[in-house]
Amino acid sequence: MKALERPATEASADEPGWRAHWRSIVTIASGISVIVGVFVSVGHFRDFVENSIRGDMSKRLAALQQVKEFLAEDARIARCADRFLSTRWPTLQTELPSRVQARNGRSVYLSEEMSDYAAVHYHYEQLGALVKLRYIEFPLVFEIIAFPDEYMEATASAQAALAASWYGPNKPLKDFGANIRWLQRCYQHSRKLPHGQTPACPTE
Fold it and tell me: Can you tell me where the transmembrane regions are (predicted)?
């Protein structure tokens, strides 16, 4: 009977070694999986960083292209502004309020005699909207496009008259030129910043 019981005793003695062996294998496998996980995470992080850099570069290049288009257009717009001030505005300055009252601001704005004014207005209104909505970074705009403060000051009464009766007498378009005014505040704010500080729009 003792001889028959012996194999069972030997099996019991060997069992802890078998478990220890598998425990070692599991530990090694777990360590390998952790190392693999680390490498995978590092690879994903690297891809994320590279994709972010490429995305940021693409965004910057797209913004630069837009600004280049505005810059190319800016020379033509400057000529429109000079032509309007020298040929149309001296007469319209006194006649515009009555013309707007007789018709409406929109029809006067779209008239042939206001075509240069409308071109300038649309140019800076669009630029202001793109900056406000962050399609274009303002520091880039500030560095390469000059805001026409003197022109805007000279024609401020035209903008006020058109806006006040845009749809007819006492039917205003209150946000007419709003993006231009906002863009101008960005320029005015940035000009007051200390030298070397990044141009920015006011936070209020």
Answer: 20-45
pTM: 0.69
pLDDT value at position 72?
Answer: 83
Kindly write down the DSSP assignment for every residue of 42-100, as one continuous string.
HHHHHHHHHHHHHHHHHHHHHHHHHHHHHHHHHHHHHHHHHHIIIIIHHHHHHHHHHHH
- Tell which residue, 126, 144, 142, has the closest CA to residue 188: 142
CA distance 69 to 63: 10
Cβ neighbours of residue 93 closer than 8 Å, sequence gap 6 or more: 157, 158
HSE at residue 111, side-chain half, CA atoms within 13 A, is 15
C-beta separation of 151 from 120 below 8 A: yes
**Coil vs helix vs strand at 157:** helix
